[in-house]
TrEMBL record:
One Gene Ontology cellular component annotation held by this UniProt entry: cytosol
Protein name, as recorded: Glutamine amidotransferase
All residue ranges annotated as the Glutamine amidotransferase domain in the record: 55-198
PANTHER family linked to this entry: GLUTAMINE AMIDOTRANSFERASE YLR126C-RELATED (PTHR42695)
Database matches in InterPro entries: ChyE-like (IPR044992), Class_I_gatase-like (IPR029062), GATASE (IPR017926)
Keyword Transferase assigned: yes
GO molecular function: transferase activity
Organism: Nocardioides immobilis
Coiled coil (UniProt feature): none
Pfam family, one: GATase
Amino acid sequence: MADVQAKPFLLLSIRAEERAAVNEQASFVRFLGVTAEELHRIELGAEPLPAIDLDDWAGIILGGGAFNASDPEESKSEAQLQAERDLARLLDIVIARDFPFLGACYGIGTVGRHQGAIVDRSWPEPVGPVSVELTDEGMADPLFAGLPRAFAAYGGHKEAISRLPDHAVALATSVAAPVQAFRVGQNVYATQFHPELDLDGILTRIAVYAHHGYFDPSEQEALGAAAAAVTVTHPMTILRNFAARCRSAGAIQS
């Protein structure tokens, strides 16, 4: 088996918008604490996902984007359907092996749907700052080590998880969305909020997705001001903790 310290991370991206995709990758690089060469990006939907040998990677991350797991099947593009097929096959392997995986925003719906959660449009949140509170299980989970019970994060989504399956562990919640984070097994995680987003990142997303139905384009300036009015520093710790767990031999299942 290759040296764990030498293994790169894999970022699965669904962002067709180049500015958002580049910003997302740079944000994950920064807050994971890795070099650009240590985070390889694959654009899902652009072409079929190649075979993934989990032994080649320290951990896998699935970011957000314009796809929604709860989109009506007839409305989904071929790119979205291809991404969903590829992710379902990959998650079969990841879950069976309990391999380190972190899904953010679109990732929580994708992992949730794969595991039998109810993913629907009952709990949307506007783009901008959100208030997150850890559950008792979240306070005890190593991914959230160093975080206070309540903290601010950035998010924005049309869909969310209304109900988790019994085998999933709820790690974080909020008034606006009951499932803000959960875990399956010991190493597969998902968050509704974006742990990679700082102010520059959320302002980039607001600009790029102004015409994607998340908000009225006329609200762009007000949303940016609301984002700037809140200090968001704690969610990035999640990424540092994830990287540390992936780098440790104990978190890698062979």
